[in-house]
Amino acid sequence: MMFVSWSLAQQDDFPFLRGPYLGQKLPGMTAVIFAAGFVSKRGFDEWGLAVNGDWTEIFFSRAEDDRASIMHTERLADSWSELKVAAFSGQNNDSHPVFSPDGLKLFFGSKRPCPGAKGEFNIWYSEKVNQIWNSPKSLGHPFIDQTVHAPSLSPDGDIYASGLVVFLKKSSGYEGPIKLIPHIAGQQPAVSPDGSYIVFSKRERDGFGGTDLYVSLKESDGCWSLPLNLGKEINTEYVESSPTISLDGRFLFFSRNGDIWWVSTGAIDKVRAHKE
Q: In the predicted model, is pLDDT for residue 59 greater than 80?
């Protein structure tokens, strides 16, 4: 079964955007709002932005009237399409979309009915076939055996989720959830495209207020380093959450005050270098 996209609301002020980055000036080491008035739109809450490897397609979460939907826009030639609710979203609470490494699958958390599920939130995925995003499918066991939220994929296809647990990809499915070693508390993980680090949100005494974004580095033995605060260029007295990393590894996206912000991953490299 396939779906046709529909608009969340009439957008008479739809802007004409060009270029691979929606006409945005690329960010440096200090975070700035991403695509104000289009992605980050007044009156809505947005979070969890996913962009494919060649910057031709973007998905993100937006809440209206207590329901979260996944929004979608794509680049046709040099300009971007009008922002609409994704073809497979709009009927249930859907959030935190993330691309597979090849950009042909989109995973996300959803409260849509799922037979046999023991938790309210489960992980679903849609696959792109002949340029169409197909009807989502549940990942099934072991994901439906508990509440699973905010997925992120490693280069090997392992799925990390809130609570900082990982479901290991096997030839016949997935195994897990398995806690990181050492176990680190945190939410909404974002694994880097090369698998060398993971960014997540958490509240700590050394933070700037609310929840901050932290990074943990993968060591040579497969264990993870203690969390490192990403600093004042990213964190503030407000709540920073829902980090994602572009598939090209160049940009970190996250939510603050209902808007999506972005920053060069050079800000993460700076923190990593200080640790090393």
A: yes
Q: Are 215 and 230 in contact (CB under 8 A)?
A: yes
Closest CA to 126 of 172, 101, 89: 89
Domain architecture of the chain: domains with CATH: 32-275 (2.120.10.30)
How many Cβ atoms are within 10 Å of 28's Cβ, its own excluded?
12
Residue 272 CA, distance from chain mean position: 21
Phi, psi of 22 (to 5 degrees): 55, 30
Separation between Cα atoms, residue 57 and residue 259, nearest integer Å: 19
Residue keyed to tokens 């609470």: 93
Strand 45-51 relative to strand 67-76, pairing:
unpaired
Q: What would the pLDDT profile of 144-170 be if each residue is shown by its tens digit?
A: 998 898 999 999 999 999 999 999 999
Under 8 Å between Cβ of 230 and 268: yes
Could you give the C-alpha distances from 259 to 39, 75, 83, 96, 267, in angstroms and in order? 8, 22, 16, 14, 20
pTM for this model (two decimals): 0.91
Tell me if residue 7 falls in helix, strand or coil.
Answer: coil
Q: Which helix (H) or strand (E) holds 257?
A: none
**119-142 as b/e, with b when 16 or more CB fall inside 10 Å?**
eebbbbbbebeeeebbebebbbee
* DSSP annotation of 149: -
